[in-house]
Amino acid sequence: MEHNTIIHQTKTFVQDTLRNAEGGHDWWHIYRVWNNAKLIAQTESADLLTVELAALLHDIADSKFHNGDEEIGPFTAGSYLQSIGIDKETILHVQNIIRYMSFKSSFDKHAFYSNELAIVQDADRLDAIGAIGIARAFNYGGFKGREIYNPEIAPDLNMSKEAYKNSTAPTINHFYEKLLLLKDKMNTDTGKQLAQQRHNFMESYLEQFYTECN
C-alpha cells in the first residue's frame, strides 16, 4: 500500500473513532498536530510515514478518557496498523512514540527517543500552547467541572507524575504546571521558534486575565 493511501485510510479511521471526543482531543486537535508534524519534518531527518502515522494516532485512545490506562493508546494504534498490513518495525516505532511523547512521560526517565518522536512531540506540544492551547485548557477544565481560577489554590510546581495525573486544580494553575513549561521542552529548532510566539501570547493573556480579575 502506498504512502498516500495509508495516510488517507488512517485519517478516516481516526475521524470515525474520535467523532464524539472531547473538544480539546478531537479530530481537529489531531488535524492540527498532523499539520504541525509535517511542517517540522520538512527541516528534520525522519521517516515521514512514521511521523504522520504517529501524529494521526497519538490520541486515538487517550488515557485521560480510559481510566488512566496508559497502554490502551499504543495497543489501539498497533491493532489498527496491523490490520492494514503495516510492518512490525514501523508499528513498534509508532507505539513507542505514542507511549513516550506525552507531558506526563517527562516525569519518568526517557526509555525511548527518536527523531520521529521529537517531531511529533513538538507538534503536539505546539497545540497545547498559544491561543489554541488556552482554548483547549479551558475546554477540558469545563469538561472536568474544574474552577477557572481560585487564588487560594496555588500551582504545584513540584508535583509527582501521579499528582499531575490526578490533579483537580483550577485551569489557570495548569498554565504554570504545564503550559508555560513547554517552550523550554521543545526538541527541534522549528518547534522552538514556533513555541516562542505562542508562549509570549500566553504570558500576555495571563497578564490581561489578572488585570480583569483585580
Descriptive overview:
With 214 residues, the chain is mainly alpha-helical. The chain has a single domain (3-213), classed as Hypothetical protein af1432, CATH 1.10.3210. Helices cover 60% and strands 0% of the residues. It contains ten helices and no strands. It has helices at residues 3-17, 27-41, 48-57, 72-83, 88-100, 115-126, 130-143, 161-165, 171-177, 189-213. The longest helix has 25 residues, at 189-213. The protein is globular and about 60 Å long. The model has no long low-confidence stretch (mean pLDDT 91).
Question: How would you briefly describe this protein structure?
Answer:
The protein is mostly helical.
Secondary structure layout:
Blueprint: H1 3-17, H2 27-41, H3 48-57, H4 72-83, H5 88-100, H6 115-126, H7 130-143, H8 161-165, H9 171-177, H10 189-213
User: How far is it from the N-terminal to the C-terminal residue, by CA?
Assistant: 59 Å
As for the number of domains, it is 1
**Amount of beta strand:** under 5%
Structural class: mainly alpha
DSSP strand count: 0
Shape: globular
Q: What is the N-to-C succession of helices and strands?
A: HHHHHHHHHH
Question: Nearest-angstrom radius of gyration?
Answer: 17 Å
Uncertain spans: none
User: Tell me, what is the CATH class?
Assistant: Mainly Alpha
CATH fold descriptor: Hypothetical protein af1432
Using the 3D structure, state the CATH architecture. Orthogonal Bundle
By DSSP (H or I, 4+ residues per run), the number of helices equals 10
Helix content: 55-70%
Largest sheet: none
Mean pLDDT: 91
